[in-house]
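#random but structural
TW: two for the price of one
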Amino acid sequence: MENKLRIGIIGLGTVGCGVVKVLSKMDDVEIICAAVKNTAKKREVELNCITDNPFDIANNPNIDVVVEVAGGCAMLDVLKAAIQNKKHIVTANKELLARHGAELFDLAREHNRVILYEAAVAGGIPIILPIKTSLSANKFNSVAGILNGTTNYILTKMDEENLSYEDCLLKAQQLGFAETDPTGDVEGFDAMYKIAILANIVFGKRIDVNKIYKEGITKISALDIRYANELGYKIKLIAQAKKVDNDALDIRVHPMLVSKERPISEIKNATNAVLLNGFPVDKVMFVGPGAGEFPTASSVVGDILCIKSEIEKCGEILPMTTCHHSEYANQIDIEDTKNCYYLCIKAKNEPGEIGKIGFECGRHAINISCIIQKEAMDDGSATVIVITGECLEKDINTMISNLESDGITKVVNKIRVM
């Protein structure tokens, strides 16, 4: 390409500044302008043109590619305008793609533009293009992973340092791994958006993000971590999508007990991992940094260079990246899923209580794989840990409701087993 590829950037936060730093070392790419909320704010990078109106980027005829790293859904109309103005899009915005991807991809196809988003799912881990190219021969049964570095860091520190959730969250905030308002991470929103995008690619169906079951890590206690370890498990926030009967999809995000024999159980701190299961590849796992200035910038700039390498070669660039499907997936409700369960139960420290738990499980055809009474408390209660066999979510919930009906027995936590 004789002329430089001309870039407009929306957002100069951590990732945006990282992108500028990487692009500044390249002679064949030129940053024309950047849009930010506050033009007076001091930043690590300097640009000749900065505006507080993102439509200045979308409407600038001298820009070939719009790089959107601002986050959230506020940029929807801006990106639509950019596509209508014949600009390609590179974005790291998982929420925007998960909620409005169908509209954006339809518009991009109409205007013969591409939207690349490698950075939106797993930071610096290359996963989207490998699925569409190297792994395109596969029929996948499932995709699952640790897709949020903040929650994985918190759970790792709870495990290794025997600290409470609250203490580890504060530590994560002090180190910059967690936001001042951590809701998007610890309540599972971030991982939910990412698994929606992955499921869309892996199964070739559009995903309704509002139908994804989501549960965060705020109820996980240091005792749960300890008991899981004793039973041979680690607790991880897992996002997963898998095929079930009649090609329906079971898509959800929640904590899970993961056997220590599974490699994904050893993914620590802010590292991410994506596990794919299909034919003929069987199982393959991608591991790497899921966030951060330069890991995410690596994926963003990689997408920019993909566009640059193709932009003058043919009328339709990177056709494998175009979204051609329009059918929405049949997503099953969490109540209809099948799982094994870890139950942490507070019961009276009296003869017959374990039998009562066993009786209630038997009434609902729930097998017990393991049942252990732990320490007794001064208030006359004891902790009982149960691992069940596979059963329907609706059945375990009914069993728990019946078990708690006397107002004495309490299921303190219910965690699914991977």
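TW: number two ↓
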Amino acid sequence: MKEQIQLLARQYHAGVVANRRHLHTHPELSFQEVQTGKFVAGRLAELGIEHKHGMAGNGVVALIKGKKPKKRVVALRGDMDALPIPEANKVPYKSQNEGVMHACGHDVHTSSLLGTARILHELREQFEGTVKCIFQPGEERLPGGASMMIAEGVLENPRPASIFGQHVHPPLRAGMVGLKSGIYMASADEIYVTVKGRGGHGAMPHECIDPIAIAAQLIVTLQQIVSRYADPAVPSVLTFGKINSIGGATNVIPNEVKLEGTFRTMHEKWRAEAHKRMKKMAESVAKSMGAACEFNILKGYPVLYNHDALTARTKQWAIEFLGNDKVVDLPLRMTAEDFAYFSQVLPACFYRLGTGNPERGITSPIHTDTFDVDESALETGVGLMAWLAIKELGM
């Protein structure tokens, strides 16, 4: 079976690359993946694969039924949305949608899952059980397409026993994969703060309540949430990436200042406690300086947890499929992923697909305007996911 999957992955590679380039040329933002969803549904229809189009707006769910389809169900997930980044690459498949780019590799994830579905459909008489392929919209934007699809019943009828997801990883060479068992990626919350003071002439601060000075104090003081309240063994990050005054000039103190930031951690109980502490601390500091503070937290993706036993199996199967030198262990990441919602409901394994090639200059990180992949990685992505699905079904 392994050799058969590897052969099919090579055989279908050109078609997978063509699909990837089509998607890369026509990227769509989160929850706007209208043509992307139609493209995926069209490819599945051409293959004769049973599917449903329209979950969470533009999502697509396909079922590949082997013999005894009710025996066991495994889910595979690929996300479809792009980012609001103008592409700088000079390639034939450069984005034609101005200001939008597949800078996070979701074109790779979607085309790989289509290729995997094709292989599994061709081999359906050789395995028992069902594979559910989830083509998900809106990974890059809250509330996250994963949470919406779960709410709409994507994990029911039939319910998977486990789920796999993969993500491009430029630091790894194409042909390699990386895994991390247990807690792997952070929760991510958005913080919005408005400090309301009293504006006036910059030369007469004694007649004002300066929201800029108070906002600066808040930024410094709130860092104590991480440095003095968080358990040092629990990774936590608090970053303010945006500060704007409403009005103001070199000699004008404004009435209001707005701050925007992110809070990330690896522990759900501490996450909830930190939310309360931040709000209380910010309001207290502002009040002590004569100002008012509106502190709002938009709760984002939860902690992503890779099921220990499933990830151990995945690592062993990846070694069997790719070779021991192609599979590496990865560290924790403070980035976030809405695949975490799936990991809160089912045994899950989210692994990294190497896409880099330093010799060809393919090294740019994700979320940059020069991100690209060594497309040989698509053969690895397609074949390995098909292999994992069949192994998890019990073959």
